[in-house]
């Protein structure tokens, strides 16, 4: 469940750091609080963003104010790639989940660099392929798997993204239970009930605005058992 995406995007991050973020016209955004708006639905789609540190959630909010998180963007990743298309306005929104440093790259600067670096287009193609695969997986999880399996899947993914704590003994995922519910497409109540069940079984631990994973292998084993039970 973890690993390939990081290696696929590492080259793109290196190119962005080397050839883009220090150009005139690229600005540095340092949000100092959670939930700071990066862009809103309906705002101009004319910039691309690079996360140097921190976390960003990209999400859609429905008419009933219910939120679904489309993706969580970690350090070393681009987002806002819709600016490379033809839509003049954003159809989704982005907010800060964890304070850090975000570079704002105007579309014309990005495209100008791409003209001199054809390999950058290849990396963007890889990014779009990865994002397409993530959305396809989200649809599969929503349609074919229950809430417990979806929690186990995403927590294994996120633990791999955020890495171990300094003592190497456990992984901390800096999300609230409500944010996890928005990510997996479940209600807050069902997500909380399922998390408490997993905590009682020792598969995870619950903290304040964080989810703690003692072992990714334990998560993967529990996910395998859940999928096997569902297919029996």
The main sheet comes to: 6 strands, antiparallel
CATH class of the largest domain: Mainly Beta
Number of helices in the DSSP assignment: 7
Structural class: alpha+beta
- The secondary-structure element order is HEEEEEEHHHEHHEEH
Q: What global shape is seen?
A: elongated
Whole-angstrom Rg: 18 Å
Give the helices and strands, then pairings.
Blueprint: H1 4-19, E1 27-29, E2 37-39, E3 47-61, E4 67-73, E5 78-79, E6 93-106, H2 107-116, H3 118-144, H4 147-162, E7 171-173, H5 177-184, H6 188-200, E8 205-207, E9 210-213, H7 216-231
Antiparallel strand pairs: 1-6, 2-6, 3-4, 3-5, 3-6, 7-9, 8-9
Helix pairs in contact: 1-3, 2-3, 4-7, 5-6
Summarize the structure.
With about 230 residues, this protein is α+β, with helices and mostly antiparallel strands. The protein has helices at about 5-20, 105-115, 120-145, 145-160, 175-185, 190-200, 215-230; strands at about 25-30, 35-40, 45-60, 65-75, 80, 95-105, 170-175, 205, 210-215.
């Amino acid at each position: 469940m973890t690993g390939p995406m990081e290696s696929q995007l590492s080259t793109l991050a290196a190119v962005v750091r080397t050839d883009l973020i220090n150009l005139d016209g690229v600005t540095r955004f340092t949000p100092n609080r959670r939930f700071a708006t990066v862009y809103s639905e309906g705002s101009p789609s004319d910039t691309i963003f690079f996360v140097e540190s921190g976390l960003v959630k990209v999400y859609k909010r429905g008419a009933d104010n219910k939120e679904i998180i489309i993706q969580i963007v970690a350090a070393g990743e681009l987002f806002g790639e819709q600016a490379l298309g033809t839509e003049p306005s954003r159809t989704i929104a982005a907010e800060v989940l964890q304070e850090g440093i975000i570079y704002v790259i105007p579309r014309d600067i990005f495209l100008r660099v791409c003209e001199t670096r054809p390999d950058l287009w290849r990396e963007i193609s890889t990014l779009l392929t990865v994002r397409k695969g993530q959305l396809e997986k989200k649809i599969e999880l929503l349609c074919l798997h229950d809430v417990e399996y979806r929690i186990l899947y995403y927590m294994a993914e996120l633990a791999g993204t955020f890495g171990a704590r300094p003592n190497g003994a456990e992984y901390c995922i800096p999300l609230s239970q409500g944010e996890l519910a928005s990510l997996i497409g479940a209600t807050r109540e069902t997500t909380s009930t399922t998390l408490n069940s997993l905590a009682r079984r020792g598969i995870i631990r619950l903290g304040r605005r964080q989810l703690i994973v003692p072992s990714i292998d334990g998560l993967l084993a529990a996910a395998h058992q859940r999928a096997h039970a569902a297919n029996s």
